[in-house]
Amino acid sequence: MVQELTARAKFVQEILQDKGYSSQVIELAESTRTAKDAAQAIGCQVAQIVKSLIFTTRITHKPVLVVASGSNRVNEKQLGTLIGEPIERASPDFVRTHTGYAVGGVAPIGHPTPIQTFIDQDLLQYTHIWAAAGTPFAVFQLTPQDLQKMTGGQVISII
After folding, report:
1. YbaK/aminoacyl-tRNA synthetase-associated domain: from which residue to which, for each copy (predicted)?
2. Which of 26, 121, 129, 146 has the smallest CB count inside 10 Å?
3. Structural domains of the chain in order of their starting residue, each with its CATH number
4. Do residues 74 and 66 lie in contact, with contact meaning Cβ atoms separated by under 8 Å?
5. Residue 155 carries which DSSP code?
6. pLDDT digit string, tens, across residues 45-91
7. What is the pLDDT of residues 8-56, one digit of tens each?
């Protein structure tokens, strides 16, 4: 018997279906809150995990989404230079307000309003990658090309 998805995971699944993607959201017994946890639960490399990280611009307080390889850290100074103003990690409340998701379950899609998005170029080397699907226990598999298409993100070096 297939377990019913939780509300937020179902929301992500519906978005994927509505946009014509064949990805299936799965919910795991183990937490996927961190890239390491997700890779262990799924059985893939940490680098194949898509970390959806929300930053805020320090002057205009706009959200910025960076979808990063699980093995990379974002060079905030470099990204701020690219954007045109300094950035900092967003608070959990800011993340929920601008994405609709809690930290640890931020999907790269389904935000209330469009968010400027940057994609870690290191994700492009993999055939399949895994992204959060609305909760710290839900994920979906996709291709880097689908990630680019669904987010409209700009591919950059984030390190």
Report:
1. 30-149
2. 121
3. 7-156 (3.90.960.10)
4. yes
5. E
6. 999 999 999 999 999 999 999 999 999 999 999 999 999 999 999 99
7. 999 999 999 999 999 999 999 888 888 999 999 999 999 999 999 999 9
Alpha helix (H) ranges present in the chain?
7-18, 35-42, 76-83, 92-99, 144-151
Q: Annotate 94-136 with DSSP letters as a single string.
A: HHHHHHSS-TT---SS--SS--EEEEEGGGGG-S-EEEE-SST
Q: Which tokens is 80 given?
A: 């701020």
| Residue listed under structure tokens 């055939």 | 127
Q: Model's pTM, two decimal places?
A: 0.94
Cα–Cα separations (whole angstroms), residue 37 to 46, 104, 109: 9, 11, 21
Check: CB of residue 91 under 8 Å from CB of residue 98.
no
Q: Is residue 107 within 8 Å of 27, Cβ to Cβ?
A: no
Per-residue tokens: 2:
């297939």
Residue 91: partners with Cβ closer than 8 Å, 6 or more residues away: none
Q: Tokens 């993999």 — which residue?
A: 126
CB 64 within 8 A of CB 87: yes
